[in-house]
Structures
1.
Amino acid sequence: MMEPLVLFRALMDETRLRCLVLMVNEGELCVCELGYALGVVQPKISRHLALLRQSGLVQDRRVGHWVHYRIHPDLPSWATTILKATAEGNLAMEPFSDDQARLRTMADRPGRCAGFAEVTT
Amino acid sequence: MMEPLVLFRALMDETRLRCLVLMVNEGELCVCELGYALGVVQPKISRHLALLRQSGLVQDRRVGHWVHYRIHPDLPSWATTILKATAEGNLAMEPFSDDQARLRTMADRPGRCAGFAEVTT
DNA sequence: ATCAGATATACTGTCAACCATATATCTACC
DNA sequence: GGTAGATATATGGTTGACAGTATATCTGAT
């Protein structure tokens, strides 16, 4: 049901906010993609994603080695509105613009096969 | 210019969130009205309003004994969108619904003259 | 079964936020 | 000038959040 205080508490941390903005704009992303895009060590990303998951803001899905996260599809509409407004209103600004640019430079992104060759570990 | 982290940090506290929702729905309100509506002691209200003011989220205006606060008119549109979405999406829920109802029961609200007689101290 | 890659959790120290009470400021009025 | 009402700030104490490092888990392949 998503209490507003839970939502805002989740959005208050820079790492979590950057992850969420990236997910709003890019859809599903795995931990390693988020860590690469933000330039942040994996345990830190993971810890913050756990809080987002516990808060009901994101949903996770295991795919082989990787765990993919996305904005939870069952959020109430006012919460979705807030996430989208935040992403759109700040997409051109630091650090969000850089995160997106850096993600684009990442090679061998899981789930995104280069051509038809399967990307193995 | 309103950094998103500043906004969400401000929205993260229950007292501040209730004040903001009330201001979104009712317009300008003074400290005593907010304190009455929330059932919260004055120094607490004042402290949180100071943070909202310093964050650029609200604007204050002195009128005689009273200081009136309102949502800052120069907020970027994405921030306004967030405030309105929060207020609309939660207006029917606790504790926001009660705050509004309690405000309506307040007698001698400053600025709101009962009839045409001026309301003095 | 073992090993490596990907992700999650635990532990410790530090710092910021909150509350409650008390006190200070500022305005209007006498 | 002095007083009262309305609002603001200061202080002390407590709690909760975050960072960094180390370690555990889980999956897939050899």
2.
Amino acid sequence: MDDVARAAGVSKGAVSKVVRNAYGVSDSMRERVEKAIKDLGYRPRIAAQAMRGSSFSIGLEIPNLGNEFLTQVMQGAAARLVGTGYQLLVAPGIGEMRGTPVLENLADRQVDGLIAISPEVTPEWLEELALDVPIVLVGRHDESVNYDTLTNDDAAGTRLALGHLRSLGHVRIAHLTIRTPLDGPRSRPPHSVRLEAYEQVMAQTGVEPRVVFCDGAPGSAYAAARELLSRDPSITAVFAGHDSLAIEVLSALATLGMSTRDVSVIGYDDIPIASHPLVSLSTVTQFGESVGRTAISLLMERITQGRTHARHYQVRPELRVRSSTQPVSEHRDAPSGSAP
Amino acid sequence: MDDVARAAGVSKGAVSKVVRNAYGVSDSMRERVEKAIKDLGYRPRIAAQAMRGSSFSIGLEIPNLGNEFLTQVMQGAAARLVGTGYQLLVAPGIGEMRGTPVLENLADRQVDGLIAISPEVTPEWLEELALDVPIVLVGRHDESVNYDTLTNDDAAGTRLALGHLRSLGHVRIAHLTIRTPLDGPRSRPPHSVRLEAYEQVMAQTGVEPRVVFCDGAPGSAYAAARELLSRDPSITAVFAGHDSLAIEVLSALATLGMSTRDVSVIGYDDIPIASHPLVSLSTVTQFGESVGRTAISLLMERITQGRTHARHYQVRPELRVRSSTQPVSEHRDAPSGSAP
DNA sequence: TTGAAAGCGGTACCAC
DNA sequence: GTGGTACCGCTTTCAA
């Protein structure tokens, strides 16, 4: 920057102003400085900028790169940031490096805003961190005061999925889900909300709920589904906690020589492959790209407009009916009359 | 840091040494300082560190988040970095913000190393940037001098795929690929190499090559495949430039009321969904996770061991046979005798 | 409007 | 081994 100042015959401060096109620079000076910048190929060091002001970066902590729903969120966030001058910095969590340390790491880099997706970080810790940097938490229904939350109405989505199955005559519907950490009354993980809504619906129909847990690792849903399907043939439909699990249920069906004509499957998220004709997975969409975009917008409200009160934004999910959900087949247990 | 120094009754410099566990600190001092750090919850600012030394970050520029092969590369890179103290910072390209500006952006953030995947950045520009920061370019076969390249043997992979199809009796094999920018003799994009290898194989068999281009956007391969399949029924197999394209070919087949018993399909990359029983896509794997891991290793050689000469690392691809490739069916044109 | 100078939070070299 | 101090490259008063 000194070089530029010397070349343009002005002071460092002036160059700084031109770079940030701040107030109080004459046209003639701006012109000279810009020429010098171009001639010398000068680029400001963001590290140095960050020490005094902004780093013009938004951190996105993502617990699992393999999750295609999260990929959609990333894409939405990246798209929303185009033209704002901010750069999206994605920090993937992996192994022991996930949740807290990753967010801390991003905060140490002086990002101007943080999108957290990790289910494994406590609300208390997040409140603390949110004192330093604007945060929006995606997915979990927290009653936060210092950070924003961005969720979808998981209970409504679940009712959409189950209502659809019931309209096809399904009664004995199993729920395949993952265990979620940190479940509390004021901090509810999405899968916990879905599970509860499932149990409520089943209670209303007077049918015993059938819940199967897996750990979410690749193959774990497959194994759980195989066990469920072979052990409990009265099940006519499976509501999977999200699409990746549902996809593995489809695998299990296929390798058991069955199809969705035998057992219907519905997922959650509407990941891209769900709409492929060979998969054709019915699901509930929560508009991942739009979630990513909204997350950035919420952050920007705090960064540029200085909002400080928490917002809790909720997306309305929608049903996507495809061919993995079919009317309950004739030879199965008939639906037990009309349910209340 | 001043606060820590005061609390521990030592100098700033001492604290700095403890933080980086550098040479020349007595145990008693280290103990006091560490206690003070813990008590005050001190965390060093990476921006400040970056100004004098290292930012302990590796930048990964990725042109397309939707590409699952690249997702695997990301995962491998993230996994390799666990425990090294370096953080992976992924900068996704999108819209006009891709290639050059994204890499520049990362470089401005003083990353210690850069993984570039973008096909759209010129070798000359990369050579220039590589003077400032260690770079490994993934995918493209550049004859670089300042940066490393990490590729797979695309010609061999193509021969694997085509050899497999020919062994099943296929002769009229089409190639669906994407147009690649910046094709030059000393900077060959993977798809250009695959295309050339395809043409060579076809020339050897004396069959007219049938190449179809699409732009790689979602749905473009589907449209191209539909057109190809309906216009040219003599085609018995399609070699797709990568798995995402192949998946769309499968879509096209399905919506045309056909299956892989009619037309075989083979892809490249072995993305996760390829092994799903409902998809079961034959393909060529280039071990994406391992590519990511190796990219980091190459970078680390430069960062910690100071290597300066370029390395050009090549992965040996392998065939993955699944059910999307079938023997050419009876009622189709019979294979024209034994090929040389 | 412009320039000079004081930091920001670290690192590294230097005497002690 | 330890503490003092001069930077790093930028932003931001504050005078001129």
